[in-house]
Amino acid sequence: MFEGLSEKLTGIFDALTKRGVLSDEDVNNALREVRRALLEADVALDVVRSFTDKVRDRAVGANVVKSVTPGQMVIKIVNDVLIDTLGTQADPIDLNAAAPVGIMMVGLQGAGKTTTAAKIAKRLRDREKRKVLMASLDVKRPAAQEQLAVLGRQVGIDTLPIVAGQTPVQIARRAEEAARLQGFDVIILDTAGRTHIDGPLMAEMAEIKAISNPHEILLVADSLTGQDAVNLAKNFNERVGITGIVLTRVDGDGRGGAALSMRAVTGKPIKLIGTGEKVDDLDEFHPQRIANRILGMGDIVSLVEKAAQNIDAEKAQRIAEKMRKGKFDLEDLSEQLAQVEKIGGLGGIMGMMPGMAKIKDQIAAANLDDRVIKRQRAIISSMTRDERRNPDVLKASRKKRIAAGSGTRVEDVNRLLKQHRQMADMMKAMGGAKRGPLGKMAQMFGMGGGMGAGMPSPEEMAEMQKQMGGQMPNMPKLPDAPPAGAFGPKPGMPGLPGLGSKGPGLPGLGGFNPFGKKK
Fold first, then answer.
1. Reported pTM
2. Same-domain pairing of 444 and 352
3. In terms of C-beta density within 10 A (0-12 exposed, 13-18 middle, 19 or more buried), how is residue 187 classed?
4. What distances in angstroms separate CA 3 from CA 83, 303, 352, one per listed residue?
5. Alpha-carbon span 190 to 169, nearest angstrom
6. Nearest Cα to Cα of residue 38 among 22, 53, 49, 29
7. Which of 10, 145, 264, 441 could form a disulfide linkage to 47, CB 3.0–4.6 angstroms apart?
8. What digits encode the pLDDT tens for the residues 36-88?
9. CB neighbour class for 482 (10 Å; exposed up to 12, middle 13-18, buried from 19)
């Protein structure tokens, strides 16, 4: 969602960092471009004015102009103001109340309230170990109550039985009673929406609020609606009163202005963001991490956390031992590719890596596509167990059979085998990397002792983020038109494997080289 804004801001700051000394005019020109970038990203005008005024107050003066690295000082100031605008600290759902804790979901029709309710319920059960009851109060939209019941069965969450003819207020009363009698910790009330804000909708929300007295009132807003989402948040906050915001479709191609504006306009925190359609695609909103991603610094900490949540520790430990010994077969490769899909696919991982905005065109030219992973797993699945464990037996006739079975070409099979050989050789060397960010990343992805004992501490993760903030570890600062091979590993530098045309793959990503040529 923030790609367009990130690209524009990165270009502005690249021009600043190339200057040895900044004048007040340089700073003013840069702020003018920042203002334009924010307006193009659909940020509310009042928020843009406040943002640029705060930056100007901090940036214009001797402290910046005479700084050793004035361009980077301006970037730091913009980053600080961006964090202030987004909310300074993460503010997750508050469950500190007497059970059952009420969570009321409000918003317009089509914003994703029902799906988000199921995502939150599953998140609270899995991470907070809470017993959750969901109840649909939407009697207007056809099959809305049945939809929540189906989602409840899919994620294993209890839903309130449907009784035809009841009003939303009656359903809220019945849900409250059922949750109290049956010992539920949390009750989620999925209210009705409209295609637009109207008097009857607000009156209904106010009545439900008075009856159920929810501890949290979460506004679910579609991030693709831009300024309309800001007006929506303002109206709901003034007429119903909200405690937080959940942004959906953050993985879409929206311009990011809603996220920057809603917090500033309402004063209410963005608590969660929906990053996809799957029930697990819901993340906490961390202002500092989002600010880093907008400014092209990546989000290594979130990548570490996502890996910790999705990668099987025992499998990682077992594969780690084989990697250190150079025994890395195609079954292990398939498992590593599956782990890539679990933590968001190549697109999700690349979006969290520092410096990606600067090589956006190169990534696009490389035809980076998560379907390549599925194709490579299909090739491995077309092999026999002996072939997966001993790739050396794969001769021409077997490769033709595997290509036919997987719907690919012999060239694809050869490319996969070559990458596997490179990965196996490199893993043995990587197993000994114990220090620095790369060593920690090796541990994180199961190459240095497994996900359990090898996980970096929060302080180490923060240090990794700091060390890797400006650019990729193995990547020099790039000119405007990078020469051929600029992304490959350099002699004498270990680099981050897989980011060069000859690199064997991102750590733990099974040798997949996203920059390899595709025919």
1. 0.61
2. yes
3. buried
4. 17, 18, 12
5. 12
6. 49
7. 264
8. 888 888 788 888 888 888 888 877 665 565 555 666 777 778 888 888 888 87
9. middle
